[in-house]
Amino acid sequence: MIDNASAREIGEFAKDAVIGVSETTAALVRSVLERPATQQCIVGAGLSVLTA
């Protein structure tokens, strides 16, 4: 997932790791997970695609 996140998004993940996870964090994670490149990586790793 990190490979498909922007530098700003990675910075947000790092900040949230220190101050705590919020609904904004969850929304950002969902956004990155929904990207086609992330989906391809998940499937390529033999994991099932996450769906809500």
Can you characterise this structure?
The protein is an all-alpha fold and 52 residues long. The chain contains three helices and no strands. The chain has helices at 7-19, 23-33, 36-44. The protein is elongated and about 30 Å long. The mean pLDDT is 89.
- Class by SSE composition: mainly alpha
Residues in helix, %:
55-70%
Radius of gyration (Å): 12 Å
The coarse silhouette is elongated
Number of helices: 3
**Sheet having the most strands:** none
Strand residues, percent? under 5%
Beta-strand segment tally: 0
Low-pLDDT residue intervals, each spanning 5 or more residues: none
- Mean pLDDT reading: 89
First and last CA, distance = 17 Å
SSE order: HHH
What descriptive keywords fit this protein?
52 residues, mainly alpha, 3 helices, 0% strand
How would you briefly describe this protein structure?
The protein is an all-alpha fold and 52 residues long. It has helices at 7-19, 23-33, 36-44. The model has no long low-confidence stretch (mean pLDDT 89).
Record the SSE blueprint.
Layout: H1 7-19, H2 23-33, H3 36-44
